[in-house]
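wait is this the right file?? whatever heres the structure
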């Protein structure tokens, strides 16, 4: 009987430790997204911006699952807007949430696919849903611009940005030191 309680206690403390690690890394990913998107972005007019703000959001979804990716996207968008003084646009926040959610969901669904095509599919589909469709809709409504015109420019933007994010993410995951830490986190 005592042995069973000890195993349960050990299992419980391991779950708590894992939860704290996931929370800490998710907070770091939120901070990276804010820095990449709000401080290191290259803006071209009011609606086009080249940044890697979605890379940490995608990483949250891939590493910890769709719900963690969703929360990283929401928190990064809301906190980033407050820090920089942007007006919070719930549609843009929904787009960020979808990027994290679908990035994590698709990565899990394509689990039998090799790493690079798996990441590529996850990045492309989550960007099409979150960045190209939903965020473009939010920007078109906010700036009172035609959706189809923004859609074309943002599709070109995220073809470049998404390709770069996928390549960076792939090389990060293939790096021995990073992959060891990722494996440790996912246990």
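ok assuming it is, sequence goes like this
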């Amino acid at each position: 009987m005592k042995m069973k309680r000890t195993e349960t206690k050990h299992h419980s403390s391991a779950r708590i430790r894992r939860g704290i690690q996931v929370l800490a890394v998710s907070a770091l990913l939120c901070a990276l997204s804010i820095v990449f998107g709000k401080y290191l972005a290259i803006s071209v007019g009011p609606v086009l911006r080249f940044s890697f703000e979605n890379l940490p959001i995608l990483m949250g979804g891939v590493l910890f699952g769709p719900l963690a990716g969703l929360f990283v996207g929401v928190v990064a968008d809301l906190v980033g807007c407050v820090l920089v003084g942007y007006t919070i646009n719930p549609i843009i926040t929904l787009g960020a949430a979808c990027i994290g959610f679908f990035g994590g969901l698709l990565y899990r669904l394509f689990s039998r696919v090799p790493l690079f095509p798996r990441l590529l599919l996850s990045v492309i589909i989550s960007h099409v849903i979150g960045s190209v469709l939903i965020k473009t809709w939010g920007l078109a409504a906010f700036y009172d611009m035609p959706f189809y015109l923004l859609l074309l420019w943002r599709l070109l933007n995220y073809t470049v940005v998404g390709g770069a994010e996928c390549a960076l993410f792939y090389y990060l995951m293939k790096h021995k030191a990073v992959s060891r830490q990722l494996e440790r986190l996912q246990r």
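The longest strand covers residues 42-44. so i think its the right one actually
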